[in-house]
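ugh ok fine here u go
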Amino acid sequence: MIQVHETAVVHPSSDLAEGVSVGPYAVIEANCQIGRGTRIGAHVVVGAYTAIGRECVLHPGAVVGGISQDRKFSGGISYCVLGDRNVIREHVTINRATARGESTRIGNDNLLMAGVHVAHDCLIGHDCVLANGVTLAGHVTVEDHVVIGGMSGLHQFIRVGRMAMIGAMSRLAQDVPPFMLCEGNPPRIFGPNVVGLRRHQVPASARADLKRAFRALFREQRTVSQALAEIARLPAGPELVHLVDFIQSSQRGICGIARGDAGLEADD
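structure:
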């Protein structure tokens, strides 16, 4: 059974699956798809060309799929796509992509707390937590199992690696490597996210190798190339492979590593 409050407005071209509920004064614009069991709270706006998966919860005042705030947005059809079981708290804003045919995408099982902003063309993976007031600029990529502390700001085009954790009120203008703890302005890498690694059942041997990789990159006086050569001598588990691939593919550099491949001085 679909339940739509008498004050809500649902465009006739939009498709609501079985079990969807739409609260008072909510608006669902044209060409939207809302998955089974999803609950749309009071005063929520779901913008045109937005797809929301199953069993999501959108709390009052959220705006999901609003048009891009990019000045290059020309009014063409672009998309916003959310997976299943996402919780979108009060006054979150998620913009659809800028270019025609492109998408802003959020995976499954994510929690976006009150006041989060996800700009155009962002890609968020699965099982992430963005605390109150986090702001993602355009084209930011957040991999799986990431936690971002409240009031943090992320520059456009940066990436946050899998299982990273970012402390509150951090300012990030470069990529955050996977499996690491990061905080500050300017940001600093403090070490592997040991608690997160344990929760996701990463073996003790892999955690030890990530700690060695952290020291090579951030605590020993090496260039990035030298640090990666040192890491290559460690057992090539999937976590280390992902860490190395992430660093080698970075376009904006890794936060906490000095510019010009200069390495960091020891700081223990």
